[in-house]
Structures are given as structure tokens and as C-alpha cells.
Design brief:
Layout lengths: L6 H15 L12 E5 L11 H19 L3 E5 L1 E2 L3 H13 L5 H30 L10 E2 L3 H16 L3 E11 L4 E3 L4 E17 L5 E6 L10 E4 L13 E3 L6 E6 L11 E4 L5 H10 L25 H14 L3 E14 L7 E10 L2 H12 L4 E3 L3 H10 L4 E2 L1 E2 L9 E4 L5 E3 L15 E3 L3 E2 L1 H5 L2 H4 L8 H6 L2 E7 L3 H16 L4 E7 L2 E2 L16 H8 L1 H9 L8 E2 L2 H24 L16 H22 L3 H24 L5 H15 L4 H11 L25 H23 L8 E6 L3 H8 L2 H7 L2 E7 L7 E5 L4 E5 H4 L2 H26 L2 H6 L2 H29 L1
Parallel strand pairs: 1-2, 3-4, 9-11, 15-23, 22-23, 24-25, 26-27
Antiparallel strand pairs: 5-6, 5-14, 7-8, 7-10, 7-13, 9-12, 10-11, 14-16, 17-21, 18-19, 18-20, 26-29, 28-29
Helix pairs in contact: 1-20, 3-4, 8-9, 8-13, 14-15, 15-16, 16-18, 16-19, 17-18, 17-19, 17-21, 18-19, 19-20, 25-27
Length: 869
């Protein structure tokens, strides 16, 4: 083995080895139990981030673990077309070439989009591979590929035929930047510093007025009524009268509505049905006019009077300015305001009335709630079921149409002659009602989540009843971040139940975000984002994976830091060095991994028993999705017990059989977490003819064995380690060199302990730096250091460690010198001129020296007491 672990060359070699041998390929085998996962498809909009790295690492650990347990394991890879994000990127790219999508047309735009997909889709695949993901790449899917498109059309048509999809003109969430509608779940509410404007609305007598508090004075030109509360006696006599809309000089009626909050502002609401969800409902109830004052980019249109062509926020400034000049503003207050923003681009959402396609959600939500309540689908950790239930029980109809070209085009066709609407699985050329050929397809595409909601079964070629669908579906676990429970998880559950009659997965394993070392969310604005490929290139994939999983717990955010990655790299080197030591000390290349249990030393029994229980614990942790706990236990065992103790113990009496047995099984335990270094070690030791699999990835995961339980040996070696640690700590306190060896006397009144200690005499002599060790039930050694453990008393003759008289003399000289220095410093600090006139940094430094001298004197006195007493 090379002296240094060269991860770069090894990882590339191992990846190629896995690929060439198709170790991760899975096919239907009804004689084997399956375990399947579908990858949460990353968007084809660029590079993977640390969240992807964590998500993929968690999945790979689970799939490798189950594969090694003998399951027919399948991990289906793929990517998402990401309508809004991808189209925005392509539009931006076209803009750099002085082109726009309207200018080049839909067909050419889609050509650009598919080229984008080929470029960035390959990039995503390469990055997932770089993370060591053991996917079956022969089954790779894309949410816009031919089969997924068929699945989406089938889903749409079936829902439409069941009257669960409808088209209507309703108030929707409009993104003026992405230029498309988005659903309620895609709106993020953020708190902004805002202002509340108190605007005067004069009655027709032009003397009296009502004051309306509004955060959006730019919508004044869309006002079609003024509303007051039904239980607000202040305005009761004014109901039915008219007021003049400021600046617009239009008359509108004062109406009454129960939705008006009496305690907000003045209790008077300006009703703008075209630009507010609440106002739209009031408008429907009262049959109000609807005046749209914005275009699709939130710029004021011809209804905005002289403010036409101004952006909404520029218009606000100008309108407020004019209101003030006309004495139409009573006051302005600073407030905090929750404003809906687009989850993709963070642009402020504009409520807008538009004709869109919707899914009726109540009927679909009920069975999706039921399967989680009945534990047919379990959230890990369980607390996320509350979030799921809250969202599903309060769900609104889902707006699924998007004003985009990149995506699944809505399978609806319109006859321009008779206005007939035809929803079909196939392209319609002739109207089914009037036989006209003047038929066009809906220009809009479907919400990305409409297609990705079918992912767990569309990847198996649904709606066809394939053998793969029958065998691999439902999948076993979905691994995802908590931030897309609404967007994706819920949609997969109700879509699967409606289309297949089955749950899409048994578990939803929820993980948190990867934050920086200070606990901040990684973002471009903070400049704290970390590219996982940069970490891989510097430290290796195994180190990155280990750092992401260590201390990770389900549902909780994790911090990524330099300390973590350095610790991971050190652990990688520790494993490599242990394997190299064993390799260098093997006498021949013919080892049988069957242990000779009749010829084991106590230290062999101890380490085998400890290993055995670690296997049990790690298996249980992995089954419960406690991956962070599992790797911590494995780390502790490998570093502390196997490397730092057993390998060192074994140098006294090398048992090659136990060493190689442990090494091979340790790398098996480590393989799901650190696949590359474990595969490399496996391949190196494959030369030793221990008759195992061609790759560690398809080897058998270790199992707990009753034959390897040696509790008495564990107790004995634990006691020995305690003695060694205690003696070493005491010597360290006295600054005794390891080269200085002494006699050691160990007593234990317990006969059993006393006899057991004798078995480890050679180990204790070596590791306690002793000339010799004597055991007895009781000793009385004068002038000695006494070390006490839970079961023994240890005597170390002091005169064998140091020349006591010389040490006392040295300490007394050092004490006198320190006292003299302290006396001088004390005088200096007592001098008022020094304190007042000396630079502050000099005074501070002097005080620091004073405190350090005091501490040093106390320490010397304590050392002297040890020898004098």
C-alpha cells in the first residue's frame, strides 16, 4: 500500500470500476426482496450545492446498506426540467445575444432549451457520480422525457374526466419577474419595513371625508368601492353614500362587509377587486366592477392615468407625492408588513385576476391525510406530520397552469369557431363539436410540481403496467429536505393514491439544511456558499460525505465547518494507516476469515466483542434512519478502540487472523458512509484470498453474532485501559518522559481482579512505561505516587521517577525568582504615575504579567507540596 492515501486517483479509478462492472444495476427478480429509492430530481439549472450533497449522501448510505444486506436495491436517478428556473436562465442567455423568446418563437426557443438540458443535465449527472452515488444509470429519467410526458398527460386527462380539473377566471399569485402565475405553496411571506398611508376620500359634499389606511396607494386607480365593517357603528350612516377616489376623481359607493377589520387603520377599506385576494371576494359578493391597472410586469397600464408606464413602486412614489401636494394624506406611519414573494426569484407577488387551470384539492387531500394518520406513510422525524396535516387540512385549489414554454404543454384544445374546449391524450386537429379545423392548443404549460408529483411511479413507465412498476413500486423511502414538504411530498402522496391506488413510499426521511459554521443559511448575498466539488477536489469525496453526516440528525439543520472537514480527512488517513500497518505485517496471502475462537487472547476477545456490539448498534441506527449516530459510533470504535488500543496491543502478540477479520468487517461497516477508501482497501486485501465478493459494494453487511460476545473480556480490558490511562496521566502531570521507566506495584483486594490483571502483565509493562510490574492484594510502598482506579491501587516509587532533592531545589529557585518578579511588578502597578501616564496597552500588558506570575507561583507551591509531604 502507498504511504499516503491518494484520494484523487483512487476515486476516479473506483468510479470507473463500479461502472464497468454494473454493480448498481438492478433488474426485476421476484425471488429477492427489493429496496427502491427514487432520487429527488435536481433542477437542470446549474451546479449542485451542499444541500444536494447531503441529500444524495443520505440516500446512498441507505441504498448501499440495503444492497449489502442482500436486498435487490435500486436507486433511480434523474433530473427535473424546472420550468420557471430553467426558462428564466434561457431567457437571460438569449438576452445576452440580443434575442427574446417572442422574437424567435416557441419552436426555436424549445431547441435552445433542449440544448441547455443536454449541457447541464450531463453536468448534474457527473456531479452526482462524483459524490459516489450508487445509482442505476440505465434507468435515468428526466421529467420532460417521452414517458414522463405521457404520464403527465394521462394524469391531467383522468383528473379532468373526474371533474377534478377545471378552468376558471380567479384571483391568482402573479410574479412580474418570472411572468407567470405561481401556486399558493410557492409564495414565501417575508417581513418588510413598510408604510401605512392614511388617505382622504371626500364625500360628494367635498367637505367631509373618510380616511382609508392603505399600504398600496398605487392601486387607487383600481378602486371600485369603499367598505366598512358590518359591526362598526362609526360609519353606519354613511353606508350607501358615495365618495370621490383621490386623483382618479371617480365616484364609488360606500358598502358594508364583514371582512373589514375594525381595528386595522381606520376601519375603512378601499376595495380594489383586481389587485387583492380579499377585495376580489368582496367584489364578487357585491357585484363590483373590476379595473386592472397593471400589465404583466407590474407597470401601470392605460387605467393608471398620468402614471401610465411607471413601475408599481415608482408609481407609488409619484402618487404619494401628488396626494401630499393635494392635501389628501392625513399621516404616514412606519410599519412591518408581511408581503408575498416568489419562491424562485424573491420578487414581490402581484395578486391578479386571470383565467387559469385548477385542481380541486379537497377530494384528493382526504385520502392523502388518511394514509399518514394510519401510519402507512411515516415521517422521520414524526414531528413533520403536524406540518403536513396543517397544510393538507387547509389546502386551497391548486393553480397548475404556467405562462411558460418550457414544460409539459397543457393537453387542452380550443375551437376558435364554437369555443369548444377539448381535453385529450392525443393532439386534436378537428373540433369534436363543429368539425372546424380552426383548433389551437393551450399555450400554457403545467406547474413543474404537477409532473414531479408523479415521479415515484412515472419513472417505472406508468401508466403502462410494467413488471418494474409491479416490483419496485411503492418505493421504500423518500429522502428530502423539510422545505419542500408542501411543494413535492404532499403532491406525490395524493397523486400516487389517485392514479395507482397505492402509497408512493413507506417513509419520508426529512433532513435539514446545510448551514455555514456560524449557523447561517448559505446564500449568494452572504457569500458563504460552498461548492461541494471544491471540497471533493481538496479533501476527497469520502471526507465530504463523512463531514456532512457526522452529528447529523433527522429533520435538523447541520453546520459545515473547516474543523469538520479536517477531522474527516484525518479519519480517512487513520483508516488508511491502520490498513497499511496490517498489510505490512501479514506473513502470507492465504487467510481464512473464519476465526479460531478457541485460540484467542483476552485482547482479541475484547475487540471482537466490542466490534460485535458496534455492528448491532449501527445496524439498528441505520434501520431507524439515525445515520449521524451510526457514523459517530463507528468513528469512536475505529479511532479509539481499534486503532489507538487494539492495534497497539497487538504489536506485542500479533494475531493476523483477528486483525484482517476486523479490518475487512470494519471497512464493510464503513462502506455505506465512505465508499471509495473502503473499496480500495477491499481490493488491496482481495489479494489475500479470503474468498469474498468482487466488490465491497455487493459484499455482505456484518451481522451480530452470539459467538462473539465476550463480556468478561470486555470488562477486563476496560480495566486495563483505565490503569494505563491513569498512570500515563499522572506521569504527564509530573512531566515524566516516556523513556523514564520505573517499577509499578498494583494491588487489588478483589481476587478475581487480581488474577485477571496478571494476564496483561506484558501489556501493562509496555504501555505504563514500567521496568517491571508486581501484583499483590496489598502493598505498602513508601515515598511513592499513588494512582487509584475503580478496582485497583497503583504505586509508582517516586525516587525512580525523579531526583527529589534536585527537583525541590529547582522548584525553590524558580519560586524565589517568581516572587521577586511579582514584588517588582506589584510596586510598578502601585505607582500612580505609571498607571496614569503609561500607554494603556503597556498597563494592560503589565497587569497580564502580574496575573500570570500569581498563577505560576501557585502552581510551583502545589508541586513542592507533593515532595515535601
Amino acid at each position: 500500500m502507498d504511504k499516503i492515501y491518494n484520494f484523487d486517483n483512487i476515486e476516479n479509478k473506483i468510479s470507473k470500476f463500479w461502472e464497468e462492472n454494473s454493480f448498481f444495476y438492478s433488474k426485476v427478480d421476484n425471488n429477492k426482496k427489493k429496496y427502491s429509492i427514487v432520487i429527488p430530481p435536481p433542477n437542470i439549472t446549474g451546479k449542485l450545492h451542499m444541500g444536494h450533497a447531503l441529500d444524495n449522501t443520505l440516500q446512498d448510505i441507505l441504498i448501499r446498506f440495503k444492497r449489502m444486506q442482500g436486498f435487490n436495491s435500486l436507486w433511480v436517478p434523474g433530473s427535473d426540467h424546472a420550468s420557471i428556473a430553467t426558462e428564466a436562465k434561457i431567457v437571460e442567455n438569449l438576452k445576452e445575444k440580443n434575442l427574446n423568446k417572442e422574437k424567435i418563437g416557441r419552436e426555436k426557443f424549445l431547441d435552445y432549451a433542449w440544448k441547455w438540458k443536454e449541457k447541464y443535465g450531463e453536468m448534474i449527472t457527473e456531479q452526482i457520480n462524483k459524490l459516489g452515488a450508487s445509482c442505476d444509470w440505465t434507468k435515468e429519467r428526466f421529467t420532460l422525457d417521452e414517458n414522463c410526458n405521457k404520464a403527465v398527460i394521462e394524469f391531467f386527462v383522468r383528473l379532468y374526466e373526474k371533474n377534478l380539473i377545471y378552468r376558471d377566471k380567479k384571483m391568482i399569485n402573479w410574479c412580474p419577474k418570472c411572468l407567470t402565475v405561481i401556486s399558493d405553496s410557492e409564495v414565501n411571506f417575508k417581513e418588510f419595513d413598510s408604510k401605512l398611508y392614511y388617505v382622504k376620500y371626500y364625500l360628494l359634499n367635498k367637505k367631509d371625508y373618510l380616511v382609508v389606511a392603505t399600504t398600496r396607494p398605487e392601486t387607487i386607480f383600481g378602486d371600485t368601492a369603499i367598505a366598512v365593517g358590518s359591526e362598526d357603528s362609526r360609519y353606519e350612516k354613511l353606508i350607501g353614500q358615495k365618495v370621490i377616489v383621490p386623483l382618479a376623481n371617480r365616484e364609488v359607493t360606500i358598502i358594508v362587509d364583514s371582512s373589514v377589520e375594525k381595528n386595522f387603520g381606520t376601519g375603512v377599506l378601499k376595495v380594489t377587486p383586481a389587485h387583492s385576494m380579499v377585495d376580489f371576494k368582496i367584489g364578487l359578493k357585491n357585484n363590483l366592477d373590476i379595473i386592472d391597472i397593471f400589465d404583466k410586469t407590474a407597470v401601470l397600464n392605460e387605467n393608471g392615468d398620468k402614471y401610465e408606464n411607471l413601475d408599481r413602486y415608482q408609481a407609488r412614489k409619484e402618487i404619494v407625492k401628488d396626494l401630499i401636494e393635494n392635501n389628501l394624506i392625513e399621516k404616514i406611519e412606519d410599519i412591518k408588513n408581511n408581503i408575498g414573494t416568489c419562491y424562485r426569484c424573491s420578487c414581490n407577488i402581484e395578486p391578479r385576476i386571470s383565467t387559469q387551470w385548477f385542481v380541486k384539492m379537497k377530494e384528493l387531500a382526504e385520502p392523502a391525510i388518511k394514509v399518514v394518520k394510519e401510519n402507512k406513510i411515516k415521517f422521520i422525524p414524526k414531528r413533520f406530520t403536524k406540518i403536513y396535516f396543517h397544510w393538507m387540512e387547509n389546502i386551497n385549489d391548486w393553480c397548475i397552469s404556467r405562462q411558460l414554454w418550457w414544460g409539459h404543454r397543457i393537453p387542452a384544445f380550443y375551437c376558435k369557431n364554437c369555443n369548444n374546449i377539448i381535453v385529450s391524450r392525443n393532439r386534436i386537429e378537428i373540433c369534436t363539436k363543429c368539425n372546424s379545423k380552426n383548433v389551437i392548443q393551450d399555450e400554457d404549460t403545467l406547474d413543474t410540481w404537477f409532473s414531479s408529483g408523479l415521479w415515484p411511479f412515472s419513472v417505472f413507465n406508468w401508466p403502462k403496467n410494467t413488471s418494474e412498476l409491479e416490483y419496485y413500486y411503492p418505493t421504500d423511502v423518500l429522502v428530502t429536505g423539510y422545505d419542500i414538504i408542501f411543494f413535492w411530498v404532499a403532491k406525490m402522496i395524493f397523486s400516487a393514491l389517485e392514479m395507482t391506488g397505492k402509497i408512493p413510499f413507506k417513509y419520508v426521511f426529512v433532513h435539514g439544511l446545510v448551514r455555514d459554521s456560524q449557523g447561517r443559511k448559505m446564500s449568494k448575498s452572504l457569500g458563504n456558499g460552498i461548492n461541494p466539488l471544491d471540497i471533493i477536489n481538496k479533501y476527497g469525496t469520502d471526507a465530504l460525505r463523512f463531514a456532512l453526516i457526522m452529528n447529523n440528525s433527522p429533520g435538523n439543520d447541520t453546520r459545515f465547518s473547516d474543523e469538520k472537514i479536517l477531522s474527516s480527512r484525518n479519519f480517512t488517513n487513520k483508516i488508511w494507516n491502520a490498513a497499511r500497518f496490517i498489510s505490512l505485517n501479514l506473513e502470507n496471502k492465504n487467510f481464512n476469515l473464519e476465526l479460531d475462537l478457541d485460540n484467542l487472547l483476552e485482547i482479541d476477545k475484547w475487540i471482537l466483542s466490542r466490534y460485535n456490539f458496534v455492528v448491532k448498534e449501527i445496524t439498528e441506527n441505520l434501520e431507524k434512519f439515525e445515520l449521524g449516530v451510526a457514523i459517530q459510533k463507528l468513528y469512536d470504535f475505529v479511532w479509539d478502540e481499534f486503532c489507538d488500543w487494539y492495534i497497539e496491543f497487538s504489536k506485542i502478540n500479533l494475531n493476523n487472523q483477528v486483525l484482517i477479520y476486523l479490518l475487512i468487517n470494519i471497512v464493510k461497516l464503513l462502506h455505506p458512509f465512505m465508499p471509495f477508501i473502503t473499496e480500495e482497501i477491499w481490493q488491496i486485501f482481495n489479494d489475500y484470498n479470503f474468498k469474498e465478493k468482487k466488490s465491497i459494494s455487493i459484499s455482505n453487511f456484518p451481522k451480530f453474532s452470539k459467538n462473539l460476545v465476550f463480556l468478561e473480556s470486555e470488562k477486563n480490558v476496560k480495566n486495563i485501559i483505565e490503569i494505563i490511562k491513569s498512570v500515563r496521566n499522572r506521569r504527564s502531570e509530573l512531566n515524566i518522559s516516556n523513556n523514564k521507566r520505573t517499577h509499578i506495584y498494583i494491588s487489588s483486594e478483589n481476587y478475581e481482579n487480581y488474577e485477571n490483571l496478571k494476564k496483561f502483565k506484558n501489556i501493562l509493562i509496555k504501555f505504563c512505561y514500567a521496568k517491571n510490574i508486581e501484583f499483590n492484594k496489598k502493598f505498602d510502598i513508601e515515598n511513592s505516587i499513588i494512582v487509584i482506579t475503580n478496582f485497583s491501587k497503583i504505586y509508582i516509587p517516586l525516587d525512580e521517577l525523579i531526583d527529589i532533592k534536585a527537583e525541590i531545589s529547582r522548584l525553590e529557585k524558580e519560586l524565589n525568582l517568581s516572587n521577586n518578579n511579582l514584588e517588582n511588578i506589584t510596586k510598578k502597578l502601585g505607582d500612580k504615575n505609571f498607571i496614569d501616564k503609561a500607554p494603556k496597552n503597556i498597563v494592560s500588558k503589565t497587569i497580564e504579567i502580574y496575573e500570570n506570575l500569581k498563577a505560576k507561583i501557585s502552581k510551583i507551591k502545589l508541586e513542592l507540596e507533593k515532595y515535601v509531604n
